[in-house]
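help with this record:
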Amino acid sequence: MWVYGDITRRVRPAELLAEVEADLARGLWTSALIGLGQLVQGLADAEFAAVGCDRRSATVDGLMTALVEVAGLLLGTASPGEQARAAPFVGLAGAWLEALEPIEARVPEGYAFYALHPALYAAAARRLPAGDWRVIGIRSIGTSLAAVVAAALGAPSPLTVRPTGHPFDRGLALCPELEAEWAAHPGPFAIVDEGPGLSGSSFGAVADALERLGVARARIAFLPGHDGDLGPQASARNRARWVGALRPAAAFDEVVLPQLAAEAAARLGPAAAPLQDISGGAWRRLRTWPEPPPVNAGQERRKFLHRTAQGAWLLKFAGLGRIGRAKLDRARALHEAGYGPEPAGLACGFILQRWEEAARTPVEDAAFLDRLGGYLGFRAETFPAREGSGAGAPDLLEMTRANVEEALGPTAGEAVLRGAPDLIALQSGMGRVHVDGRLHAWEWLALPAGRLLKADGVDHSEAHDLIGAQDIAWDVAGAEAELGLSAEQTEDLRARLSVEPEVLAFLRPAYLAFQLGLWTMAADAQAGWPEEAARARTQAGGYAKRLAVLLGVDPPARRG
């Protein structure tokens, strides 16, 4: 199933640097760290593409030095003199970068989705023994995380590398001068990245290269995002090395949670109880359901409930730096228009949002359908997105074909392609907005006074998947599927939003195929939680049946 995709931003280096300078001027160290890390990553990847191997360069090395200084500002270890040097140095770099072509700056997933805070890596680095450490960051997010580790250790400016190859068997391509530099240092080396994921092969690729160059295995440490084992796709070699390696990791609950609790209390009022973790579907226990909705626990944002004497507040991770600030602006706009809960600001990358005690909305009610149309119209008008911020029509078509074929067989996949429109003409008529993307009935709240709210409408267009921002027709297709709209109701909604019929016709199977893939993978990932896996399979099965009807093929139960 095709569900996930890398999220990148094509941007001119000088434009990205200007954002960093603005953050530095405002003392927004975390935001500056993330933006400068993206700049270094994009330039290093561009050089890698040009020469075919990782190496040092004056531009990347100079900016990495500045990145370590920014990390020192964030950690509070930089002296006033270092603070004075950072901004002018970065400003000078603008002259170098002005003439460069746009780069692909990747969204650092840990900062955007998984509450991976730089402070965790600083705490982990301080647990390493004293030594002449050299730090290696794995691009993408390992660029800025390596700078944090180097700042915490007082180590030289780190290097970054880009492992390539099959996701479960990655390797490095190092230029000869970089190989010679690594071979000349006996260690210790600290390898920094988020993860590990299913195989740990990116960590393994760097360790393999170091061992090949004569570095003893005992002189290699890993700084990962968690203290768990490698995933099920890890090779025996990587697994054996991982088990015996030095790999300090700091826990969110130990480092970030106390700060989050303190900031929530300062802004929202003293806590009447400790923060309640309601991640991974635990939020369902706070409401009454005829049948609990399914969850994809591994992909849920971290969230907590902060209870005060005056009421409760939801603390939901939105992202660090500019990522979180953009989502807070969206949450404020939704609240001011009467469509979303009240936000009170950001803390540690979490949006602080009023928790509404509410009942489930009767979605078949005429007032709800009018409210739905107003809500989607508001989004289409208020939240335009940049070009290229979501999957294009060719990728959506291929995703639809692949997911449909896996679930319903080759005949269904062929039916998708037979019904495909002229993608170039279609795409020219598609706008880009930050769609809601999750219009399921359980997401709507009816307040005691009769007002209807969308519980969670801030950031599904910026989730860790390939969809991203789309034409508002994506939400029309979503409303039809999730709310059981009749053909007449769907047509009324389409006309109200001025959606082109051919765009809706294309996105209708694409929406169903994406949700089919999402919930199929959720069921597989939650195999150890049978009750939840069953809910996810049921959800996926509903999309498969709708697709079968739409494409005119046999439903899943009748195949074979």
In short: The longest helix spans residues 501-525. The two ends are 20 Å apart (CA to CA). The chain has 21 helices and 16 strands.
